[in-house]
Amino acid sequence: GLILDKTVEEVNPSIALELGTYCGYSAVRIARLLKAGAYLLTVELNPEVAAIAKQIIEFAGVQDKVKLLEGPSQEIIPQLKKKYEVDTLDFVFLDHWKDRYTPDTILLQECNLLRKGSVLLADNIIVPGAPEFIKYIRNNPRFQCTNYPSHLEYMKVEDAMEKAVFWG
Length: 168
Fold this sequence. Notes:
Elements: H1 2-11, E1 15-19, H2 25-31, E2 39-44, H3 47-59, E3 66-70, H4 73-76, H5 80-83, E4 89-94, H6 101-110, E5 114-122, H7 125-129, H8 131-138, E6 143-151, E7 158-166
Parallel strand pairs: 1-2, 1-4, 2-3, 4-5
Antiparallel strand pairs: 5-7, 6-7
Organism: Centropus bengalensis (lesser coucal)
GO biological process, one term: dopamine metabolic process
Keywords: Catecholamine metabolism, Methyltransferase, Neurotransmitter degradation, S-adenosyl-L-methionine, Transferase
C-alpha cells in the first residue's frame, strides 16, 4: 500500500487506470490521493466482486473520483478513448490476472493511451508472479524500470512491485 501511495503521490495523475478492482482497496487508496478534478477508472471482470467494490468505494466517500468499469480488460482498454474520453493515462496500476499484464501493456501502447512519462505499477510480480511481463518490460527500451521489494499482503512472503515509466 505504501509503495502504491508513494508512486501515486510522485505521478500526481489527472487520469489513472486500475486493472483489477477486486474489493476496491487499492482504488480507495489511489482515489484519496487524487487532486481535485482527477479521476480513476478501475476495471473489474467479476460482477459479484465489482458490486462489493462499488459499496466500499461509496463507503469511503470517493465515488466522485472513481468510475468502476465492469468487463474484461482487453475489451475495455480499446474503448477508453472514444467511450470514456481518455486522451492518455498518467498512471496505470496492474493488479488483475498476471497473465494479462503483458498483453494489456501492449494493448495500452497500441491504443495510444500511454504518453511520455506515463507510469505503470505492477503488483505481485513474484507471487503469484508475472515472469512474462517482467521479461517484456525490462527488455523494452520504451520503458525505464524500477523494482520495489515488498511482502505479500498480511504474510511474510517476499514479493515485489515493478514500476515502469514509458518513454515513448
